[in-house]
Amino acid sequence: MGKTLYECHRCGHQTSVTAGTIFQDTHKPLKTWFQAIWLVTSQKTGASAVGVQRVLGLGSYKTAWSWLHKLRRAMVRPDRERLSGRIEVDEAYWGGEREGVRGRKTLGKSIILVAAQEDGSAIGRIRLRRVKSISAPCLHAFIEESIEPGSTVHTDGGGGYLGIEKKGYRHNVTALQGHKSASKLLPHVHRVISLLKRWLQGTHQGAIGHGHLDYYLDEFTFRFNRRTSRHRGKLFYRLLSQAVNVAPSPYKRMIHHARGRHAVNPNK
């Protein structure tokens, strides 16, 4: 049975209900897509491409991988509200032979900026972003994108954070000198970093290339910010709603380009 097409009675242009969404040009039934969305949202830690391929009986790993990446693209709304209140900000590093190495030994690692909203001793919402460097332009751009002006930004003494007061933020600096670890100075953000790395290593076995890391950060953010939801159905509905508002992304584009950067092997 062919696809149902809708035709404009004036110009004769034909289209389908999936046109302009991540489901455009799919050869699989939408029911199978909905099963994939339920699989992704119903599991607390998410699903791997191997797991999706096995459970849904998809013919290839490539199909499962591309489906998951399309869904990750739908997990972050471009018009989402920024964080507000008191926010901890710090950077983390991913990849390379040695985890946790900072400074000049970070060659080959991805730099991830993390913002965590303080809610007493608990953590509120978060924002994550991969950046090219910890220079002031990169740090300031992330803060402006993620945090409402007037909020208090709590950081360590890194020079790249200096000057954010001029952007309308209150800046609380806690220098590392004389303290045992950054995790005690900025406990909220370092708790998020710890959970992020555990998730990347656990659910995805750490096999994530730099080119596609952004999309995994989007998924982690989506899950973390909705971690207290008791109704998996609401997560399913939220992701499905956002999926129909995201432009299609062909497989070849995802392979050769990831957020403006050349991507790596799809198996990573």
Query: Strands across the major sheet, in which order?
Result: 5-4-3-6-7
Helical amount among residues, as a percent range? 25-40%
The CATH architecture of the largest domain: 2-Layer Sandwich
Compute the number of structural domains.
2
Question: Count of DSSP E strands?
Answer: 7
Features:
globular, 2 domains, 268 residues, two-stranded antiparallel sheet, disordered C terminus, alpha/beta, Nucleotidyltransferase, domain 5, 7 strands, single chain, five-stranded mixed beta sheet
How would you sum up this structure, described in words?
This protein is of the alpha/beta class. β1 and β2 form a beta hairpin. 35% of the residues lie in helices and 15% in strands. The protein has two domains: 95 residues, no CATH class; 113 residues, Nucleotidyltransferase, domain 5 (2-Layer Sandwich), CATH 3.30.420.10. The strands form two sheets. A five-stranded mixed β-sheet has the order 5-4-3-6-7, with helices on both faces. It has a two-stranded antiparallel ribbon with strand order 1-2. It starts with 5 loop residues before the first strand and ends in a 12-residue tail after the last helix. α2 crosses α3. It is built from nine helices and seven strands. The C terminus is likely disordered.
